[in-house]
Write a structure and sequence with these properties.
Macrophage Migration Inhibitory Factor; homotrimer; globular; 6 strands; alpha/beta; four-stranded mixed beta sheet
Chain lengths: 122, 122, 122
Amino acid sequence: MPMIQVDLRRDLFQAKGEAISKAIHAGLIEGLDMPADDLFQVYRPHDEGEIVFSPDFGGADRRDLVLIRVTMVHMFPADVKQRMYTAVARHLEAAGVRHDDVLISVVEVGFEDWYSGAPLSE
Amino acid sequence: MPMIQVDLRRDLFQAKGEAISKAIHAGLIEGLDMPADDLFQVYRPHDEGEIVFSPDFGGADRRDLVLIRVTMVHMFPADVKQRMYTAVARHLEAAGVRHDDVLISVVEVGFEDWYSGAPLSE
Amino acid sequence: MPMIQVDLRRDLFQAKGEAISKAIHAGLIEGLDMPADDLFQVYRPHDEGEIVFSPDFGGADRRDLVLIRVTMVHMFPADVKQRMYTAVARHLEAAGVRHDDVLISVVEVGFEDWYSGAPLSE
């Protein structure tokens, strides 16, 4: 049950939000073997000046940062995470987001760290 | 010092924001034995299309997702977390939020991972 | 590659956003010996009622909370984190943000938990 939070420019979200959503989802399915109906994404469109970033730190050529936070259970080895990053960036590239503009940040949690609407046991 | 970040629809926040805030706070107090004056919540109201979710993944019947991120110190055993989830969902249900629409995601940190306005030591 | 997410009042962001950005960045450079071109910050301006907080929990005197979430690699000992908190709060104080109004929350991740626009290997 990965949960995705995306910070990006409002124009970009308006122009390509749906394609970006599908691309990220496709990348997670492909990279993590995630079930296709495991879909939880939040988009936070930003106005001018709200996303501040280095244009070239680490050797990338950034023009319009798309920040993708993935919260997921600690269960994937490093090479699977790497495969997921590559798959998400490749699908985003096809949706018109340059891979240099992608920043993915994973936060790992435990299985016990989720509640997802299960019936109340009282 | 749990810190709460909530993503939800703008209409829902406008209609029930205060009741939702009180319900989440009551659930944390009850579930974690948290002091009543330990209150740190951020609400992020969303427009149409910004919250994307599966209506039925994991067997829930979702119509209007309320995503609650809880950042807290790693100190609570799994059954206490479970008690907190149940308490938050029950209080939210009383405030008019169906428990199927609740998604809680916990991220654990250390005691040393907080600064909260203590006097500067220089 | 620390990644910074800041929740604050819209008025405050409009009046002092740039100074706040520079202050946080200066605090991280000073406190963590971070390279000056390692800059990734997202600001989320909030309207009335979206930031809910205790005015005095833990002995602070809060009037206008600025919540700073720092996601960074697990590699800094507790005293270095403490030095970073003090440096950020001091620089913010110089930018007109009272240190009592600052809340910093660190989340630690691994080196493998980042993708930052590296060329796709396929």
